[in-house]
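Narrative summary of target 7.
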Amino acid sequence: MAGKRMRILLSLAGIVVVGAAALFYLTMPAPLPDDHWAGLGEPDMANGERMFWAGGCVSCHAAPGSEGDAKKVLAGGLALKSPFGTFHVPNISPDPKAGIGGWSLAQFGNAMTRGVGPKGEHLYPSFPYNSYARMTPKDVNDLYGFLKTLPVSDNVAPPHDLPFPFNQRIALGGWKLLFFSDAPRATLSATGDQVKRGQYLVEGPGHCGECHTPRNVLGGFKSGQWLAGAPNPEGQGQIPDITPGSKSIGQWSEADIVNYLETGFTPEFDSVGGSMVEVQHNMAKLPAEDREAIAAYLKAIPAL
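Modeled conformation, tokenized:
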């Protein structure tokens, strides 16, 4: 009888060990191989700058309070408060030590699209790689080429201030297993190159869903509520619903949306406010056809 109990216990222990090993394997950082980033050629600087503004790099990575050309000094230092603690935005200037100047394209690309740092560590999704995952290798290459032309900064941002258990990066593998995806976010009511371009910009580099989509208690997007509005991550007010059935922009025409992204003025002659001010400034620097594509996409997603 005792021998039978021992065999059962050993079997259970074996199942636990195998299960733990499988979970560890499934949640390990999974960078793309170096050859994924090979053969892309010289970066297209004009397209790199286009991705720079579409991705809103200055909104988080410029030093707090910077204006004008100083915004292109991506020294980091901004404190992002969240329910999980405070994240301090890093320096992504071309400085080889304090910034990303010493990174390879593969390291940069895997941070952008896989949430894997240069040492093979999981990155926190406060950096919106869950959106950037949709970016093409060409656009990533062009963006990195453009970033390397910007001024250097030797500023070193403080480490993240996160309580236990959120300070344990190993747990991010489980978060990715549950929520990380590079699949399309919405089923569209229209097709065509313009809408597809808008989908790419909104769901990818523009990372609009990071603020406009509500999240569950683990910080993942709530299913079926893409762009349906969410609590302001800065702690005050509400980020609006921007689906076609919303009370915010649901009655706007495509031309109204395009004008808002370009000028910051609504059809009611109100002006952009809050954190959207920085976003609108970035959108205004895009070519007109990109703003038109974004508007076409926002009219093509499901009304909630």
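DSSP finds twelve helices and four strands in the chain.
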